[in-house]
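> tool_call: predict_assembly(chains=two)
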Amino acid sequence: MISLTSPVKTRAHDWPAGAKLAALCVVTVVLFRVQDIWVHLAVLAGIGGIYALPGRVFLLTGLRRLRMLWPFLALIVVWHGLTGTPVQGAVIALRLVSAVAFANLVTMTTRLDDMIAVVRWLASPLRRFGVKTQALELAIALVIRFTPVLIDKGTTLTQAWRARSGRTPGWRIILPFTILAMDDADHVADALRARGGLQNVMES
Amino acid sequence: MTNPTAQIEVDALDCVIEHKPILSGVSFRTDEARLGVIGRNGSGKSTLARLMAGLITPSAGSVRVAGVDVARDRKAALGAVGILFQNPDHQIIFPTVAEELAFGLRQQGRAKDVADAEVRTTLDGFGKAHWYDASIQTLSQGQRQLVCLMAILAMRPQVLILDEPFAGLDIPTRMQLSRYLGRSQAVLVHVTHDPQDLAGYDRVLWLDQGQLRHDGPAADVLERFTQEMTRIGGGDDISDLAG
């Protein structure tokens, strides 16, 4: 699932989104500067500790969301094993896990509309030049919301194919999938328009 | 029963989509609190729902809801009419309940804290204060439909259009959602193919091939409709191809 929400309410939910995103920037920059494996191990342990703070449910959800990293980690391990640079490989792998884990932490503890408010603030210079940034803000929400929906649709189509064929569908479902997605987009556009769409600028 | 100013005026309505006439010459005027629109698949009832919500512009004629030209004056339309669709996944944009409810209110120009207070009032009114932080992913289909309903009613429309909102839901879920709908202060316009959905409604319009076939008290129209549908069901008009 791309939309990361926390199963439990944490204290970090009340912290300002801008501050959390700024902290994420700083931590990521530092992670890329540091080359010492011990520092990386310490950072990862620290992040693990933060995940454990809100309790078991939060920790398990957080760990599950890191599982998607394993193909990348496997690639790094294999490559650095072949080139005979295991320490360097370990540093890169640790850095990757820490950076994604920390970013997930921010996402899980921040409401999407708070996140969008930060984007809106960052884009405010553009508005001065007459660019309408509302579409950008809404687009972020739509991508996050509809990625899992589209994955579901793709899965259903694949199953419909399998129900009548022994072969795997592969590229052949791309066209029907596109048509389904466009049909969905029409409905979503209707629902958006029914609640104001993009014509009213949200001012606060 | 409800707001006397809320009324729907549909006058000589034509709607042509891709050279195909979907609705022709539909006119009615209603002050009833509970209006049903019934018809078969392809009778044009969903198009009528979209026209009444101002989502599409008529080819000819006019639609006014609570005095607002809903297709042209979109800003005023937001307070005049809301629409609930069949699939809640088409409406819900945000990952949590509170954010979803706040969206329409922010579109209506409410400041963030005002919108948030209204979200809490709405949730409280439905006895769903504990849903505030709930993630949409974890909700059932029926619960998502209720989120959509609350999100629309939070915007306080005078008229609420329901476009087959119960399709695919089980009996207990339908009954519970109907009860929430029944409590609504808004005028309800319920578009459906199922006469059972319209039990207890004041008036029903029967749409057939894009035209108004009957218009009258619910019990009367629904009885004629059911008879006619049973008659057609005995035949084989599923064989007929369009055009």
